[in-house]
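Second attempt. The first submission of Nitroreductase family protein had a stray character pasted in from the spreadsheet, which I only caught after the job came back as garbage. Lesson logged: always re-copy from the clean sequence file. Corrected sequence (63 aa) follows.
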Amino acid sequence: MGGFYKDQARELLNIPEQYDIHAVIAIGYQDEKEKLEETFQEREQPSTRRPLEETIMEGTFKV
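This time the job returned cleanly.
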């Protein structure tokens, strides 16, 4: 996400100075597959990626 204020993000999220902030990402939630058009429902498959909990954190910075 572009156009965010790094200083405000650092303060709000309690990010220590030794860490650089390069990007901010907005993440939504997964809804019911049935709400998609049929062509998109066919493409909807469970992910084999690493769980988000191992990659990101929510809220303020935890040291």
